[in-house]
Structures are given as structure tokens and as C-alpha cells.
Amino acid sequence: MAEAVAKVARKVNELVESGGHHLDLSDCALNCFPTGLYLVMSTVADKIFSISLANNELKNLSGKFFTTFERLQELNLEGNSLEKLPHEVCLLLNLKMINVARNKLVTFPDELTKIQCIKNINLEGNQIKDIPIEALNHLQNLSSVNIKLNPINKENLNLSDVKFELVL
User: Fold this and answer.
1) Residue 55: its pLDDT value, please?
2) CB 138, CB 110: distance < 8 Å
3) I need a labelling partner for 158 at 20 to 30 A (CA). Which of 24, 34, 94, 166 fits?
4) pLDDT averaged over the chain?
5) Strands 144-146, 97-99: parallel, antiparallel or unpaired by DSSP?
6) Do residues 133 and 162 touch, judged by C-beta distance below 8 A?
7) What pLDDT, on a 0 to 100 scale, did the predictor assign at position 155?
8) How many angstroms from the chain centroid is the CA of residue 86?
9) 50 closest CA partner among 16, 76, 15
10) pLDDT digits over 80-135, tens only?
11) What does the DSSP 8-state code read for residue 15?
């Protein structure tokens, strides 16, 4: 545990000191986003465009995460235990790519259909049964949705009018 805390502190300090744009807290054994980081990162949060929290033990993310890092363009949440995304994810007006592969989502996160500039959505390896094709078709910039390895109900899918690459 102490090693994981030290790893997070080191990565955050490096980012703050370097003025970087990518926060990588992958493989840090996090079960939540550390509350203390909001204060530590308050001076650089608006300069962070990419965050990876891949391969942790996250069960949820608070709305504060999305309001703090509202300039995000890329978010990698792959390999966690998320069952849903908070409503505040739709506040990420600049989000172009989100990776929520290998989590525990049982429904498609409808909040993602409200992010007009989103290009790529990766939901591979969850438990999603239905996908809102019509709502996704309204996203002008959407180019790809990956829903491989989900128990998709293909009988209810109308694939004739899909305007993006749908990876089944």
C-alpha cells in the first residue's frame, strides 16, 4: 500500500513540476481517485488533457473528478470495476476518446451520447446488452464504438443506418 501511495505522489509531483498535459496513474492499486489530489492539482488541472487510470481497482468516480478535469480530451479507465459513469461525465465538452473496456458496466453510459465532440468510445469486455444506436448516430464526430465481448442483444439492433464504425 505504501508503495502505491509513493508511486501516485511521485507521478503527480512530476506532472506538476513539468507542467505536463498527461496524468498517468495506471497500475497504482487505486480504489478511488485520491481526494487530496484535487487540491494538489488545482493549479494544473486546466492544463491536463489526458488521464489514464487504467488497471486500478476503481469502483466509481465522483462528479468532482469530471468538474475538476473538465478540459480532458482523452480518458482511459480500462481494467477497473466501474459499474456506471457519473452524470458529470457529460460535462467533458472536449472529450474525444474514452476507454472503459474491461469494467463491469451493465448498461451503455447514456451520458456519452451527450458529448458532441466524442470520436471514440471503447466499452469492450463489459456486460452491456443494448446500445443506443439512434442517439449515437446524432454525434457528428463519432467514428468508432467498440462493444466487443459484451452480451449485446443483436436481435434488437438496427445496423442499417449506423453512421460510425461499430465493432461487435
Assistant:
1) 98
2) no
3) 94
4) 93
5) unpaired
6) yes
7) 81
8) 10
9) 76
10) 999 999 999 999 999 999 999 999 999 999 999 999 999 999 999 999 999 999 99
11) H
Q: For position 1, what pLDDT does the model report?
A: 59
For residue 39, give the CATH number of its domain.
3.80.10.10
First to last CA, the chain: 38
- Number of structural domains (the chain) is 1
Is 125 within 8 Å of 148 (Cβ atoms)?
Answer: yes
pLDDT for residue 16: 80
Q: How many Å apart are CA 105 and CA 123, to the nearest integer?
A: 8
Query: Residue 19 has which C-alpha cell?
Result: 507542467
Helix H or strand E encompassing 76:
strand 74-76
**Phi, psi angle pair for 74, to nearest 5°:** -135, 135
105 close to 81: Cβ distance less than 8 angstroms: no
Sheet hosting strand 144-146, strand order edge to edge: 22-24, 50-52, 74-76, 97-99, 120-122, 144-146, 165-167
Q: Which amino acid is at 58?
A: L
Residue 120 DSSP SS3 = strand
Q: Which domain holds residue 9?
A: 2-167
The string of DSSP codes covering 128-157 is -----HHHHHT-TT--EEE-TTS---GGG-
Reference 60, options 23, 78, 39, 33; nearest CA is 33
What pTM was estimated for this model as a whole? 0.94
